[in-house]
């Protein structure tokens, strides 16, 4: 039973560039949430996708956008990268209407130079 | 606004001893869920234990137990018989339980780094 998988695991970008991060949810899960975790901090909720729509959003600018595909996988896009966007980006999946337990991937570590 | 506070940036414990990691929360919602996650250096957040706001008994999962004191708004994690593999970052988190169902939005604390000494 495959867990949550994320790609790439590490990447380096320069300021102003754009990045796309990908996530495949745990088998049987239909809801994907994205979190940003700065070094030494707790994760911060970015947004959640269910039925290919953004259902809930945290306090992040419009530079952060996402998408969910019919197979429930998801992408996180960040435009006009800033140095402060350097972080570990975590994807979590869950089953709508279930217990709500989130299963996390190992994350994509983004460094912006 | 919801808030999670973990006041212990770092903790040390001797192998085989028990350790308590503190967590206090603030919410005005009557329905909420409290979680503890473990994050090793690999980065993955590993679910440890869950406590619902209406659960009458403290949650337990193997060596993990949650000391839930609702009036004090605290949800401390107790790890019994610590092992070297328990060395990691530990996060307390909270989620509202809305009428529309569970959401994926968790509010996390700052975390506590636990080091287990041999």
Order of helix and strand elements from N to C terminus of chain A: EEEEEEEEEEE
Question: What structural category do the secondary elements of chain A indicate?
Answer: mainly beta
User: How many individual helices of chain A?
Assistant: 0
**Through-space gap between termini of chain A:** 37 Å
Unreliable spans of chain A = none
Helical percent range of chain A?
under 10%
Q: Summarize the largest interface: chains and residue counts.
A: A-B, 31 and 26 residues
Average pLDDT of chain A, rounded to a whole number, is 93
SS summary, helix count of chain B? 0
Query: How many beta strands in the DSSP annotation of chain A?
Result: 11
Whole-Å distance between the termini of chain B? 41 Å
Assess the beta-strand content of chain B as a share of residues. Answer: over 45%
Strand count, sense and closure of the main sheet of chain A? 7 strands, mixed
Instruction: List low-confidence stretches of chain B.
Output: none
Overall pLDDT score of chain B:
92
What is the beta-strand fraction of chain A? over 45%
Radius of gyration of chain B: 14 Å
Give the strand tally of chain B.
13
Produce a short descriptive summary.
The complex is a heterodimer of chains A (about 110) and B (about 120). Chain A is an all-beta fold. Chain A is about 0% helix and about 50% strand.
What does the model show?
The complex is a heterodimer of chains A (113) and B (118). Helix content of chain A is 0%, strand content 50%. With 113 residues, chain A is mainly beta. Chain A is globular and about 40 Å long. The model of chain A has no long low-confidence stretch (mean pLDDT 93). Chain B is an all-beta fold. In chain B, 0% of the residues lie in helices and 54% in strands. Chain B contains no helices and 13 strands. The interface between A and B is medium-sized, with 31 and 26 residues.
What order do the helices and strands come in, and which of them pair?
The complex is a heterodimer of chains A (113) and B (118).
Chain A: E1 5-7, E2 10-13, E3 19-24, E4 31-37, E5 44-50, E6 53-57, E7 64-68, E8 74-78, E9 87-94, E10 103-104, E11 108-112
Parallel strand pairs in A: 2-11
Antiparallel strand pairs in A: 1-3, 3-8, 4-5, 4-9, 5-6, 7-8, 9-10, 9-11
Chain B: E1 3-5, E2 10-14, E3 19-21, E4 24-26, E5 32-39, E6 46-52, E7 60-61, E8 64-69, E9 74-79, E10 88-98, E11 101-102, E12 107-108, E13 112-117
Parallel strand pairs in B: 2-13
Antiparallel strand pairs in B: 1-4, 3-9, 5-6, 5-10, 7-8, 8-9, 10-11, 10-12, 10-13
